[in-house]
Amino acid sequence: MSAASCPLTEDQFLCSICLDVFTDPVSTPCGHNFCKACISQHWDRNVPSQCPNCKEVFNIKPELRVNTFISEMAAQFRQSAQQKATSSSSEQHIVKPGEVPCDACTGTRLKALKSCLVCLESYCETHLEPHLTRAGLKKHQLINPEENLEGRMCVKHDKLLELFCKTDQVCVCMLCSVSEHKTHDVVPLKEGYEGKKAELGKTEAEIQQMIQKRRLKIQEMNCSVELSKEGADREIADGVQVFTALKESVERSQAELIDTIKEKQRETEEQAEGFIKELEQEVSELKKRSSEVEQLSRSEDQLHLLQSFTSLNAAPPTKNWTEVRVRPPSYEGTVRRAVTQLGETLSKQMKKLLSEVQLKRVQQSEVEVTLDPDTALPYLILSDDGKQVKHDDVRKNLPNNPERFKTCPNVLAKQSFSSGIFYCEVQVKGKTKWDLGVVRESINRKGKISLSPQDGYWTIVLRNGNEYQACAVPPVRLSLKSQPQKVGVFVDYEEGLVSFYDVDAAALIYSFTGCCFKEKLYPFFSPCDNDGGKNSAPLIISPVNHTE
After folding, report:
1. C-beta atoms surrounding 463 within 10 Å
2. What are the C-alpha distances in Å from 412 to residues 443, 456, 527?
3. What is the pTM of this model?
4. Are 419 and 537 in a shared domain?
5. What is the DSSP string of 316-362?
6. CB of 319 closer than 8 Å to CB of 286
7. How many whole angstroms separate alpha carbon 100 and alpha carbon 147?
8. Is position 123 within any domain?
9. Which domain does 54 fall in, by range?
């Protein structure tokens, strides 16, 4: 196909690194083309060597040679482009403020496209052409246009600064290297440049690493703040709940105190009203007799007075009011007794509320727990989902593996824990005896078993339907206000804490404290023997009910 029917475009001659027409184009083993200087600098900054286009990695840096065919094609394209640019309006390339002018232009100065580090001049498209086509000038190093190229000259010898003194860390010319820097470690500018680039790359990597560490620290701190906020919100909610309940108790006690005092006052008023009514009745009767006596005493008829006197009504019966008193009730001690009773009520209520709050918190540590059939005594029956266990009179034919209990009706969970906190709940409804707790991995499972912390068991048990005991040393008899229907088991590995809760009553049953855990811990369950059917109900691992 002829060139006329398939014209080459500018994009085909652009280096993908500098985005300019190829200068000394080279081809990588993967088939992509770049300026020799561009790909060399790219590989100096990035280890291992990798193609910027397809990302193919070269463990050994390829040896690059100029592709003469592409070089000639690029030169032809550059010349053609320059001719087109020359024929177009030069107004488009007139230098503007802030741009570097062409040093070769006379009259109207055009915008420079490149600066030559050898000639120490900057060139527009037209005047740059010799550097792109002439063999001698093509070896000159071209850079993006820069002003003050004189700054690249030695002020003492007026020579190009083409060397770097590693001793004094300054750029020098050839004459400097044989005079005042004669004994110094002087290297070519490129070598010094590459060394500093490597240092900058290392510094950049270190800075990026520091940035990453600080970003991770920021994330860690944000996470801590978020956890703190969640904890604060939870604490505030719990505090509001507790104080609201206590406030309501105080208000109820205050209302009861006021009602008690008012009732006493009302009884006093009713008693006084009764006495007053009775006295007023006597006064009325006495007034009536007084009127009759007064009327008769004014009579001057002697016979009438004597005859009427005998018929005068007898004095109405009256009470002896001398000892009758309305005594104000004594309120002494009323407030004190009310406050004392309130204190007792608040103390009980506060313990109950705090237990509820504590239970809610430990319930947040719920973990998935299922029973391990490989540890169960052959007399035990486990549900398919591994959540229930009960005792049966028929022994199953199972292998006596090391993990299995041989004589006691015990079973462990599949899950073990060697750090952190965990919690599970077990329904014990309908049972007359059971054992619950946690054990360490190395417990004896074959011979006589002692449920004690010294032997790796932290448990509580029920016997005879209502006798609860913590298997400590010595054993602790537990007096519970109600029989638990569901028992919560909580463990804080690092704190050495094992606690048991009556879930429905939201009450702490018992805690083993100061434990020293060094092995894996397994949740432990024993439904005990079925006692002729009296204890046939299963132990059931139940999900936590988080509803209020």
Report:
1. 13
2. 11, 13, 12
3. 0.51
4. yes
5. PP----SS---PPPP-TTHHHHHHHHHHHHHHHHHHHHHHHHHHHHH
6. no
7. 6
8. no
9. 10-88
Distance (Å, whole) CA 540 – CA 546: 18
Do 430 and 513 sit in the same domain of this protein?
A: yes
Assign 30 to helix, strand or coil: coil
Residue 89: predicted pLDDT? 42
The closest of 512, 513, 503, 458 to 483, measured between CA atoms, is 503
| All residues at 6 or more sequence positions from 166 whose CB lies less than 8 Å from its CB, including other chains | 184, 185, 186, 187, 192, 195
Tokens of 236: 């505030």
CATH number for the domain that contains residue 512: 2.60.120.920
Edge-first strand listing for the sheet containing 539-542: 380-382, 388-391, 539-542, 421-427, 486-492, 497-502, 507-512
Q: For residue 533, give the DSSP letter.
A: G
Per the structure block, which two tokens stand in for 188? Answer: 């070519």
The answer to whether residue 419 sits within a structural domain is yes
Q: What is the tens place of the pLDDT at every residue in 5-36?
A: 445 566 677 888 877 788 888 988 888 888 98
CA distance 360 to 238: 10
Residue 93 DSSP symbol? G
Q: Which of 71-75, 117-121, 174-178, 312-316 has the highest mean pLDDT?
A: 174-178
Is the pLDDT at 136 greater than 50? The verdict is: yes
Which tokens belong to 314?
A: 């007898």
Based on the domain organization, do 305 and 446 belong to the same domain? no
DSSP-derived secondary structure for 71-86: HHHHHHHHHHHHHHHH
Distance separating alpha carbons of residues 322 and 51, to the nearest angstrom: 124
The phi, psi pair for 363, rounded to 5°, reads: -65, -20
Residue 130 resides in a domain: no
